[in-house]
Amino acid sequence: MKQRIRILNEAGIHQFRAWLQAGGAGEPPRDCLLDPATTDVLAGAGDVEQQDFDSRYDLASHILNALQECDFNRISYAPGLWAWLSLFYVDLLCPVDRQGRRTVLELPRYLLTPEYRSYYRHVVREAVILVRKNGEYARALLTSRTGRFRISRVFEEVASRRDLISNPGVVELVWRLYFNPKRKTIRVGVTGQGRAGGIRRFAIVLQQLSLNYDLPALGARQIADLLPREFEPWKRRANWEPIAIPGQSRGSAPRVRFENILAGSQWRRTQLAELWGYSSIQSLSKTLIAPRGQDLLILFITSAGGADGDSASAPDAINFCWREAIPRPTVRRLTRAAKEETPVHLFQRVQSSTPFVYLGKSHVGTLTPCADGSHSVEFRLYSPQ
User: Fold this and answer.
1) Which residues lie closer than 8 Å to 297 by C-beta, 6 or more apart?
2) How far apart are CA 167 and CA 69, in angstroms?
3) Contact assessment for residue 367 and residue 374, using Cβ atoms and an 8 Å cutoff
4) Residue 234 gets which letter from DSSP?
């Protein structure tokens, strides 16, 4: 059965959620898939089909092909889209057993939640994101030895650590070390609890290495060279020949957009990199970002800067003051932005362990050098939170 992809609205999501919370009893609310009262049109969407897919990788590739004419940056965080796809493929995600019952997992497996720690749990969305960013290398994370659509141990170990699964070099290395491309399956022993160099140790070691190395800036082979001796047997079996990554356009620059980013919303760099189409968070690791080909700047501030209202001169604006020891290149770029009236989008967090809060669009006001060598920068923040 083929069907054009649509988006579940609040009423449709409510019906689907109610069915899931009831444990999948009775027939799924499939009428919601086409009903104008429970769905909206998705511009540019193609058709998806009910097929007997061999893995989540094959399912994701099929969906990604149907979404190729859509603006992926706009739909990546659209709960209604991923809920619609979960409902359309509910028989694959929640198959009926011999007793006529379904095993329904926790809600984030089927419904996209606003909690960033739960994004990776969505069975369909995370698979589509992985294939879009990593192509063939995503097979290693989306193939299970125990069942076609079961969440694999390899996936859980890597995906639960967002800095790892968002790193294309890490995903490629998982494929090269632990995936058998001839049999299209995970190698034997990868998920063993006490296995030296297995996937559990791989994730732990990489997290330790990330304290001293900039892993997003490294390729798969460079990361492999950092692994301790216990990984040598896996490295000897790895195939280091390059493979094509279908669907990736390495020559085109990511397009930064703010339609789906509301003032006051919380974001981490990994989420923004995914939303805007960056291959890794390395491109967003600096304090000041100037997206190529766009007349805007993005400023990531980690400090307790303050804002003061000034309704007398501009009812919709406030002044935001940032004082810090700012590198000279950043000072020069902000000075130029003040002269050219380049918009600056502000993200602020108080501690490095917390997400950034999007403050809104601003223009640079004044830059004042201070006696202690720092600079005080005043931004004119419009439509702020």
Assistant:
1) 288, 289, 290, 333, 334, 337, 342, 343, 344, 345
2) 25
3) no
4) H
Amino acid 300: pLDDT: 92
CA atoms within 13 A on the CB side of 257: 15
Residues of the chain with pLDDT under 70: 115-118, 146-148, 194, 242-254, 279-280, 304-317, 383-385
pTM assigned to the model:
0.67
**Distance between CA atoms of 257 and 236, rounded to whole angstroms?**
43
Q: Is 306 exposed, middle or buried (0-12, 13-18, 19+ CB in 10 A)?
A: exposed
Q: Supply the pLDDT for residue 91.
A: 93
pLDDT at residue number 146: 67
Residue 355 carries which side chain, given as an amino acid letter? P
| Residue type present at position 156 | E
* Type of residue numbered 75: I
**CA nearest neighbour of 56 among 138, 158, 121, 137:** 138
Q: Identify the pLDDT of residue 252.
A: 52
Question: Considering all CA atoms of the chain, what is the largest pairwise distance in Å, rounded to the nearest integer?
Answer: 76
pLDDT at res. 73: 79
Place of tokens 């490295």: 235
* Complete DSSP assignment for 41-89: E-TT--EEE----SSHHHHHHHHHHHTTTS-HHHHTT-HHHHHHHHHHT
| Domain limits, CATH 2.30.280, in the chain | 266-382
The three-class DSSP label of residue 229 is helix
CA-wise closest residue to 197 among 233, 143, 238, 158: 233
CATH of 266-382, one of 2.30.110, 3.10.20, 2.30.280, 3.80.10: 2.30.280
The residue type found at 114 is P
CA angle 21, 22, 23 (to 5 degrees): 90
- SS3 at position 200: helix
For residue 101, count other CB atoms closer than 10 A to its CB: 12
User: Distance between CA 41 and CA 321 in Å, rounded?
Assistant: 43
pLDDT for position 250: 43
DSSP string across 90-136: HHHHS-B-TTS-B----GGGTS--S-GGGGGG-HHHHHHHHHHHHGG
